[in-house]
Amino acid sequence: MSASLVPFPDVSTKKRDDRSNPDLVVSRQLDELFRLSEEERDRQLGANWFVEVAQFYTLTGLKSAAAPSFRPRVQIPELQTLMLAEATDISETSPKVFLMNKGKRDKEREKAFQEHWRQQQYNLQLFFAELWALFCGTGFLQVGVDPEGRRGKGEIWVNARDAGATFPDPGTLDRDHWVYVGIEDKMYLDEICRMWPDAGVRLRRQAKGYVSARIGTDDSGPGGLSLPEGPMRWGSGSIPQQRVVGDGRMMVRQLFINDYSTEELSKEERARIQEMLGPLTPSPEFKLKFPNGRWVVECEGVVLADGENPFPFKLFPIIPIQSMPRLKSFWVPPPVRYSKSLQELAERMLTGVFENGVRLNNGTWFVDERAGIDVNDFGGLPGEVRIINAGATVPEVKYGQPMPAHFTQMPELLLTKQRMIHGFTPMRAGQPAAGNISQSLYDASVFQSQVLTRMRSKLMAPAVQQLAELVFYTMSRYYTQDQVFPGFGNNEVEMVPWKPMTGGWESAYDVYLDPGSIKPLSASYLRSLVTALLDKGKLPLKFALEALDFPGGEEIAEQQREELELAAMSKQKRPR
Fold this sequence. Notes:
Strand content: 15-25%
Structural class: alpha+beta
Strand order of the largest sheet: 5-6-7-10-11
Number of helices: 18
Helix content: 25-40%
Shape: extended
Radius of gyration: 34 Å
Number of strands: 17
């Protein structure tokens, strides 16, 4: 597949002059690239998986309104809570990033980067992306630049993306080798015009269902009052002549692609290159049109932007996070699919158990026809007084046979099996095995119970590395003013400065991630390990308190150091 956005052959019998419209040519090419990605995703996950998993997560699937009241559908969000706990354990880390400037560590810029990471809540977005990955197999992070953020100083933001609105290259297995990636976002027309004012004017003219901002049936409302431009005009309360279809938002598509199109060098460029190469080496005649990659933004057949990729080093701002190892496709199987049927079966069985309990508490009355009781007014209520004929059989109630005891335990057995499949064993929940067990064996068993969690942290490590690189290089390019990031710790605020990058930083800086900083460790295991090292004198008090997130740890360690110094000085002054 060609990586260039070249025109497709026009084989249609309608509108043969569309090739004269460059916007439609690019729009058709985007249609094809997005279609190829969507078909590959549907082959691996299913056409309706994203709708199904959204209903599963929000418990808005099948309703029981049409069923009798004694048959309500029992829903057990067991799998949902397991995935929330798993995503929390994986993302509850503090990635340690090292910045190397020509082989030397730049600690000052490193600290500013770490504080910026914390203040922007990047770990929270990692949690959301991991949650997407657990339910859909693959989650995505998007990095962007907001020039108006932080009161005009600029802001590098990171958001978790909707996996169903992300379209990676279907011909590759990982981000390092994909040729393109596309994304879809719904935006209001005014927001589109604000971001791309020149092309937005053309989009406004041809937008379907566009409504005038005026109130009423004519161009002005009562007294000539009119609403300002913005989404408020669609909810003015008056009935305009036309209405916007849907919620008034339009689909904006963005494509990042390695476009290898070339263009001819000018005479001045060729002469300059020839001078550098010398007379014996022929100079090239063509150059790449998009050496850093191409970025295309399109909406409703109108190209809003088309040019160089704004992110450095040919990096695309989309980062995938996968929850399972990939084999033959970019899209991996969602972990919830492995046990979703068990939970649904348990829900059906619990519904039957509840129905049986209601049935047993509503017995059937048997009334002898000779008793002289009118069954139409017989209530069978406690304390009800009825007169029966002499010699007739007293009315009695009969209850149905209850389900066997083992049948009522089946739903819990299914849910227990589900927990075991996802690695949520009793040891992980803090329930030790029967018999005497030492602390070391207990900690080892807890550590071994997190096999799947550790596996997913390994899968997340490349994504965190890519995120750190992309954020740092984007900060280096777009933070052109002095920045100050607050660092909070030990009940104090330290202002950490960020200086703009000087020339040549592209080849000077390297970004490295410590893989050990994102390994999930059990909190109890970490506490016991730190306590043991502290008791043996192998760990300073300051580092122990920091590892345990003890409030005021630095002040406590400083106070202990001063007390030890005073004690040492007093020993030296004692007379012998």
